[in-house]
Design goal:
With about 290 residues, the chain is of the alpha/beta class. The protein is built from eleven helices and nine strands. It folds into two domains: about 170 residues, 3-Layer(aba) Sandwich (Rossmann fold), CATH 3.40.50.620; about 100 residues, Pantoate-beta-alanine ligase, C-terminal domain (Pantoate--beta-alanine Ligase, Chain: A,domain 2). It starts with a strand and ends in a 6-residue tail after the last strand. It binds adenosine monophosphate.
Length: about 290
């Protein structure tokens, strides 16, 4: 596995691979890798000949009161996981490599797709995400990039940005990987104390209850949300930040559900001080 710390190195590596006619996949991450990340690497390996994983805790996507400083980091552990997952190149730049002194160019997406859900609660978050993903696309020049459905809004935003800016990259979305009790895997689960960890699976249980009601014919978004919130409300440790039903692609709120267009039930819930996100697609075979 090649380890690159600079844009120049990863670009040279990637261009050499491309000259051999091999297909390149990029899996962007913030590190502290878990099975969810490994599933993206597996998908990347199935779809391409050369897999690049980036590990970069991107400061521009964190708000001033958020957890950038204490975000878990363990490069050695991540390196071993990547070796075992048959990653070909690891791109792990320092902050100054991506944002050198005086850096002042950002990619900003406008409209509903960033004004709702996490975008509404984390001002500037998707500007930071779009900027760093654009820089990664330009550094690695991948044929495909793999993202997790866990961050459903991020997937929608990246797809839109890729279309709008004509990046020649195919965006592949991979299903959510969960713990046995249903909790979506996340690097931030490390923050949970034992009591919080025990309460956290209620988020998925709530989404599942709504999904079951949808399967049983319930089409009122208000009633479906109520079902999910009642379950999540069973623990006093859980405080919903939002729980919304939106169109999967545009993220427009849905007042009624036809059952024809896929709808996304997305939630962000504070578990103690830790903000967890999760979602399910209503009516999908595998809503995940
Ligand atoms: P992160 O390191 O949290 O920024 O995540 C990097 C990528 O892994 C993103 O595309 C996430 O959506 C994806 N990811 C994170 N957790 C999971 C999970 N539990 N299942 C599937 N993909 C995930």
């Amino acid at each position: 596995m090649i380890i690159c710390g600079s844009v120049r190195e990863i670009r040279e590596t990637s261009r050499a691979v491309r000259r051999e006619g091999r297909k390149i996949a990029l899996v962007p991450t913030m590190g502290y890798l878990h099975e969810g990340h490994v599933s993206l690497v597996r998908k990347a390996n199935n779809r391409a000949d050369f897999v690049v994983v980036s590990i970069f805790v991107n400061p521009t996507q964190f708000g001033p009161e958020e957890d950038f400083d204490r975000y878990p980091r363990d490069f050695e552990r991540d390196r071993v996981i990547c070796e075992e997952a048959r990653v070909d190149a690891l791109f792990c730049p320092q902050v100054e490599e991506i944002y050198p002194r005086g850096y002042s160019t950002f990619v900003e997406i406008e409209g509903r797709i960033v004004d709702t859900l996490c975008g509404a609660r984390r001002p500037g978050h998707f500007r930071g995400v779009a900027t760093v993903v654009s820089k990664l696309f330009l550094a690695v020049e991948p044929d495909i990039a793999v993202f997790g459905q866990k961050d459903a809004q991020q997937c929608a935003v990246i797809k839109k940005m890729t279309r709008d800016l004509d990046f020649p990259v195919e965006i592949v979305v991979s299903p959510i990987v969960r713990e046995k009790d249903g909790l979506a895997m996340s690097s931030r689960n490390k923050y949970l104390d034992p009591g919080e960890r025990q309460a956290a699976p209620l988020i998925k249980k709530g989404l599942d209850l709504a999904s079951k009601a949808f399967g049983g014919g319930e089409r009122s978004p208000a009633k479906l949300k109520q079902a999910a919130l009642a379950e999540i409300g069973r623990s006093a440790l859980l405080k919903p930040d939002y729980l919304e039903i939106v169109d999967c692609g545009t993220l427009e709120p849905l007042e009624t559900l036809s059952g024809k267009r896929p709808a996304l039930l997305a939630a962000a819930v504070f578990c103690g001080k830790t903000r967890l996100i999760d979602n399910i697609i209503l009516g999908a075979q595998n809503g995940n």
